[in-house]
């Protein structure tokens, strides 16, 4: 039985998972039943339930190899990398857009996010019972859980379209209603409505980022909830909602140095709205395999998720973001590390700089973070929405703020159509390797032409979403069907 269907949970030292889980090996002697909630009926105990949700983002199946393959290698920003004989299990078919419903990356991403959602639901069920914990803290923690649940559902709806909405811990024994909840796909519109509800409720409670102590800057904030609401609206083309939610994201700045944002010194900086925190120091955790799988092959890494020539060509002359995003063979990195040249016909001439860790270069768990929401994207989302609303003259200055930070001049675009194209291009080079490009191509209708230019066949009516895992369809007892075109 998979994680999505588990309704009885246990708490271990670092993670929160199903006791009948066949993905994680959790020994009963190392767990404490959550039925004994009195053990957690205090401030620190309450925090544990939400900390376990954040910790899920450090797992291999959530943020590492499978997700990199699904959301990055599929795009025209990246090629598989490594060597032709090293398929990376399924990274070759992801790169070629020839995957099927048995694809392991599609399955692991699906299961990992539902594992995280289960942790959210468990926290939301137990936190109200912890009457010895500070009431204000409990309210904040519940808001964080709702934000994180919305974040994971946004990942699911972008990847698969409509999915089951599992909004509470199921009954024991499993009722017919809860079984249907777990196994029945909802429509895309219903999933988006659920996400919006969670984020709206979270935004009403969460503090501003500035109100958190330095040690808690990576926690979900009011700005994060509104920024994600803006992005959810962007994907639905609710243009005025995009503008309104972007206007609620306050207290952030555009960091003056683009490259430094992706180094240790730039973690949770003034531009950062929400990022996944990794720490390579023992016993703290980093994202499992995140830097290593994308690291320089024959030096310290596997060499997957290689920046494409198409991405290199997308940068204008003088754009500082190119060298801050891409590691080129034969160059010296900011910390003095020299990247060796293997041969003139090296199959891996480029690497993802944003995944690089200077202090834990070859470690399996490094201190590299994933920046999922930045203020620069808020400005670009607002610019896109204003332009679509016919307010092009108001959109252009926002676009230029981003260009100026990159060392570029004002955009030459003036018409609505030209500004639209300029914004799309700016999103590509600004947000490269931050897991947006594939989904941007789909939502803007550029996918077929963009992939054709990259030598790939994007099948309209199929490749907009990934397949629902065949394992889920098999056990859904006819309550859910596969996405079109997959078998």
Compact summary:
The chain has 487 residues and is mainly α. It is built from 19 helices and 9 strands.
Folded structure, characterized:
The chain has 487 residues and is mainly α. 43% of the residues lie in helices and 7% in strands. Strand 1 and strand 2 (16-18) form a beta hairpin. The longest helix is centred in the first third of the chain and has 26 residues, at 135-160. Residues 1-32 have low confidence and may be disordered.
Key traits:
7% strand; two-stranded antiparallel sheet; 487 residues; disordered N terminus; three-stranded antiparallel β-sheet; mainly alpha; 9 strands
Biggest sheet strand line-up: 2-1-3
**SS elements, strand count:** 9
Rg value: 22 Å
Helix content: 40-55%
Topology:
Layout: E1 9-11, E2 16-18, E3 32-33, H1 43-56, H2 60-63, H3 65-73, E4 78-81, H4 91-96, H5 104-126, H6 135-160, H7 176-183, H8 188-205, H9 222-235, H10 239-247, E5 272-276, H11 290-294, E6 304-307, H12 309-314, H13 321-325, E7 326-328, E8 350-352, E9 370-374, H14 375-388, H15 392-405, H16 416-430, H17 437-443, H18 447-453, H19 470-475
Antiparallel strand pairs: 1-2, 1-3, 4-6, 5-9, 7-8
């Amino acid at each position: 039985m998979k994680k999505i269907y588990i309704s009885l949970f246990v708490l271990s030292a670092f993670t929160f998972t199903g006791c009948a889980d066949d993905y994680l090996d959790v020994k009963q002697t190392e767990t404490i039943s959550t039925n004994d909630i009195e053990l957690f009926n205090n401030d620190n105990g309450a925090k544990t339930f939400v900390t376990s949700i954040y910790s899920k983002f450090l797992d291999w199946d959530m943020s590492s190899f499978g997700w990199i393959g699904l959301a990055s290698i599929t795009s025209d920003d990246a090629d598989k990398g490594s060597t032709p004989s090293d398929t990376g299990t399924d990274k070759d078919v992801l790169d070629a857009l020839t995957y099927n419903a048995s694809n392991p990356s599609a399955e692991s991403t699906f299961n990992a996010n539902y594992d995280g959602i289960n942790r959210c639901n468990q926290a939301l069920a137990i936190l109200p019972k912890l009457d010895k914990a500070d009431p204000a803290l409990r309210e904040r923690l519940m808001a964080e859980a709702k934000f994180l649940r919305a974040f994971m559902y946004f990942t699911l709806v972008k990847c698969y379209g409509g999915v089951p909405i599992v909004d509470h811990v199921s009954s024991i024994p499993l009722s017919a209603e809860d079984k249907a909840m777990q196994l029945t796909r909802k429509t895309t519109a219903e999933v988006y409505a659920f996400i919006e509800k969670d984020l709206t409720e979270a935004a009403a409670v969460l503090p501003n980022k500035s109100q958190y102590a330095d040690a808690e800057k990576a926690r979900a904030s009011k700005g994060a909830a509104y920024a994600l609401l803006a992005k959810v609206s962007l994907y639905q083309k609710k243009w005025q909602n995009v503008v309104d939610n972007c206007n609620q994201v306050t207290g952030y700045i555009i960091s003056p140095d683009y490259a430094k944002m992706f180094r240790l010194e730039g973690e949770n900086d003034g531009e950062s709205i929400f990022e996944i925190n990794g720490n390579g120091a023992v016993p703290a955790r980093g994202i499992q395999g995140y830097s290593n799988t994308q690291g320089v092959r024959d030096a310290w890494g596997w060499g997957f998720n290689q920046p494409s020539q198409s991405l290199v060509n997308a940068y204008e002359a003088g754009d500082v973001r190119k060298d801050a995003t891409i590691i080129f063979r034969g160059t010296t990195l900011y910390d003095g590390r020299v990247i060796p040249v293997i041969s003139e016909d090296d199959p891996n001439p480029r690497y993802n700089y944003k995944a690089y860790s200077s202090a834990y270069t070859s470690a399996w768990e490094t201190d590299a973070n994933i920046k999922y929401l930045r203020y620069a994207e808020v400005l670009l989302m607002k610019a896109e929405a204003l332009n679509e609303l016919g307010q092009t003259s108001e959109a252009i200055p926002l676009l230029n703020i981003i260009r100026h930070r990159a060392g570029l001049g004002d955009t030459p675009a003036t018409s609505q159509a030209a500004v639209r194209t300029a914004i799309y291009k700016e999103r590509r080079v600004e947000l490269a390797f931050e897991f947006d490009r594939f989904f941007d191509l789909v939502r803007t209708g550029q996918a077929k032409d963009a992939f054709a230019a990259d030598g790939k066949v994007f099948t309209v009516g199929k490749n907009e979403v990934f397949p629902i895992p065949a394992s889920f369809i098999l056990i859904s007892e006819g309550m859910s069907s596969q996405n079109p075109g997959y078998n």
